[in-house]
Amino acid sequence: MPNVSNLVKTIQDIMRKDAGTYGDAQRLEQLGWMFLLKIFDDREKELELLRDDYRSPLPANLRWSNWAGDDEGITGDALLDFVDDSLLPRLKSLTGGGDRISGLIRMSFEDANNYMKNGTLMRQVINKINGIDFNASDDRHLFGDIYEKLLKDLQSAGNAGEFYTPRAVTQFIVEQVDPRLGETILDPACGTGGFLTCTIEHLRKQARNEADEHRIQDCFAGIEKKHLPHVLCMTNLLLHGIDVPSNVRHDNTLARPLRDWSPKERVDVIVTNPPFGGMEEDGIEANFPAEFRTRETADLFLVLLMKILKPGGRAGLVLPDGTLFGEGVKTRIKEALLTECNLHTIVRLPNGVFNPYTGIRTNLLFFTKGAPTTQVWYYEHPYPPGAKSYNKGKPIRIEEFEGERSWWGSEQDGFAARVENEQAWCVGIDRLKAGNFNLDLKNPHNPDTGPGDVDHLLPEYERLLAQIAETRAQLKAQLMEALTR
Q1: For residue range 275-286, what is the model confidence (pLDDT) as tens digits?
Q2: Quick check: is 26 in a domain?
Q3: What is the arithmetic mean of pLDDT over 336-357?
């Protein structure tokens, strides 16, 4: 079995030869639905062995093993004709008499396209995919790595406002929010399913019997706006042993008026990284109360979270610095958050956590609905020793959160065991109100943080201005000399 990067590179090199897959976005969408069909086919083979009465929701000729499984099988124009004229149209209109998996497949393929124009190259790609057995634990583990590579490539393809959430961040948020068996869990901007799969792994550590496993299958829900991440989310959940991941919808969470969310739809836990740095389309803000209307996606999601959490419900999410220091609508949203919820912890992440997708600084917010905030604890996450930033080759690691983990304490006793240290400090609600709900507060224990003292900055600024003027004069003199030669 080739290593991960070689396998993905080989597949992408084959696709680059095809005139139809001219960019990363097309190649990834093509791979997305092909991997989904192969993974589903391997899952069906397993279910046929385990269940005597198993019946596939797919017509026999649409199952991957029947049209793609033979490496010497259909190829060239015949393969293209089958995919374009039979496979995709029939999957898009699949009916199963209300069968959940049939509806799921139909939804996953409603926007799927075949971009490849060369059937011989498509056969070569299929044969590479056939080299992975998703029922073998080694291959499944390998595909986890392939999958991470595909997700990172997806972000590099330029999906504005959406970023691959580092695994360490996802894991830390889920650990601290601590979803329990029997609770309902939601990610309203689930992307490719990172928070959901991390939650599933967290719950499986609590499972003691088959009944617990059945509860895990149905206790979570997700919503994803874009087609390609939604298909990849389905794939991710199937890989994590979710038989029918039909509780993840392809929809725009924010397109639904806030008042339409009923009390029975409220959930115990929300873990999410809502898109930030992007703007919603015209009219979406009208779904929200007048005082909270904005087109900033992350802010609208924060309003939504406050609405759909049950009393006593817990949330952990990623938010950019802009929400913390912003004014106007942002101030009103933060005032509502601190009034309706206990915002007990903000973990301030350093620059570069989301490199290379964005340089925007981010924060992890943790709150519980139902009681107002009396104080906010801040924890400034430091770089590991010797590091000055993060990058693709050296991302943030879960081991780096050991400081937060050992300091965290218990919400049941009001985090009474927490103490201030070089990384941690506490701010009372009166100070936050006096500061017009600005949450962008610097570490008082770090003298290097913050803009600096004006008495020292002004002379430095004047010195830089003088230096610029001198350089400009020198350049002007050299230019005049050159022109008069």
Answers
A1: 876 677 778 888
A2: yes
A3: 91
